[in-house]
Amino acid sequence: MFDNLSFKLEKAFQTLKGQGRITEVNVATTMKEIRRALIDADVNYKVAKELTDDIKEQALGKDVLTAVSPGQLLTKITNDELTTLMGGRIEEINVQGNPAVVLIAGLQGSGKTTFSGKLANQLHKQSRAVMLAACDIYRPAAIDQLKVLGEQIGVEVYAEPGNKNAVEIASNAIKHAKTNNKKIVIVDTAGRLAVDEEMMDEISRLKKALDPSETLFVVDSMTGQDAVNTAKAFNDRLDFDGVVLTKLDGDTRGGAAISIRRVVDKPIKFISHGEKMEAIDRFHPDRMANRILGMGDVVSLVEKAQQNFDEEEARRLNKKIRKNQFDFNDFLSQLEQIKKMGNIKDLMGMIPGMGKALKDIDVDDDSFKPIEAIIRSMTNEEREKPEILNGSRRKRIAVGSGTSVQQVNNLIKQFGDMKKFMKTMNKMGGGKRGLAALNPFGR
To answer: CA–CA separation, 187 vs 160, rounded Å?
Structure first.
């Protein structure tokens, strides 16, 4: 999302390269470049100016330590100011009550229904008794979409398909939740293509009737400053508790994420990216600032790994690795674990320095498909004993997987190299839980 902005900010900081002190002259030049980069990223002009003025005030006159260059110092100041601008700290969602009601609002197409499913999935995985309420009575497929998501994540969906009274449906959903011991009700509401009085009236009536513990406004980050303006219009009428930024994996310049807190004065609580039910994260202003400045986000990457980490499976794999018995079945299992963590390019972008390297490279979840196809085209015996894969078997696997013999050979060779490395590490006492991903097609 922030690739272009990160590149332009890095270029701005380079204007201080080789200079021993931050002065009014050189900082003014840098601020001009930073302001231009922010505006190009669709950051509100007033916000961009206030941010650069704050950075300039912090930077002027600061002595540069021997071990720190002016560019490094200004990067640190910019990081701190960006973090403050986006809220400074993580904001909790309020799910207290009997039941707690989370009201989801936003325009049509912003991703409300998908986010509702993602939030329900996250709470369900935390062993919370959660239920979804389908209160979008206008979009024909909305109820069906929510039911599909509910079935996918194992969460009950309350709906009254024939009822055209959203307030009544939501009230009945809460009664049903109390009767069935559900502690959290997530209410998915209707959206419109634009802000209108009818829409505002309905969502206002819903909020008044339900008295939700949390009201979240879902906004499509790809709409840039329009997203910020819409959020302001909703907040003036609804006084919501927090913002959800969706579609952060799309072709967006990131301005909404930077501007929205300052303009609306409400915290960003969640960010959503992709269609997978796991593709939802709490919003950390400091981590987002790190990513904007090209520093990566290793903490979030580790957290994602931990969420998808199966301790029992890790012990089993560790045992097989120590005995040098790791096979293609195990490797396939590891690929599945990696895919559960989210979009591959987004994950790689969390590694410091990788964002710039991946700027013009197309990396997506399909990258693993040829590898999976090859492994799935093997017999169980071939997966367990790769050494029996002779020429005729490799040719059959290539045909079965829709790949070339060379691609099959590359995978088998790299798998063999990895096993040799594991064997060496075992001799040195370095058995590892984590396994490096292979991609023989990128060479």
So the answer is: 13
Domain count, the chain: 3
**105 three-state secondary structure:** strand
Query: pLDDT at position 153, please?
Result: 93
Question: Mapping DSSP to helix (H, G, I), strand (E, B) and coil, where does residue 60 land?
Answer: coil
- List pLDDT tens digits, range 102-159: 999 988 888 899 999 999 999 999 889 999 999 988 887 889 999 999 999 999 999 9
In a domain, 138, yes or no: yes
d(CA 411, CA 266) in angstroms, rounded, equals 50
C-alpha 325, offset from chain centre = 35
Give Cβ neighbours of residue 426 (< 8 Å, ≥ 6 apart).
Answer: 321, 322, 324
Residue 167 shares a structural domain with residue 222: yes
- DSSP designation for 437: P
Give the mean pLDDT of the chain: 79
Find the CATH number of the domain harbouring 25.
1.20.120.140
Whichever domain contains 390, its CATH number is 1.10.260.30
Radius of gyration of the chain (CA): 25
Q: How many CA atoms lie within 13 A of 182 on its CB side?
A: 24
* Domain CATH for 201: 3.40.50.300
d(CA 82, CA 258): 8
Alpha-carbon distance 89 to 84, whole Å? 8
Of the spans 16-20, 52-56, 212-216, which averages the highest pLDDT?
A: 212-216
Interval 353-386: pLDDT, tens:
445 544 554 555 566 788 889 999 999 999 988 8
440 inside domain: no
Report the distance separating Cα 255 and Cα 244, nearest Å.
14
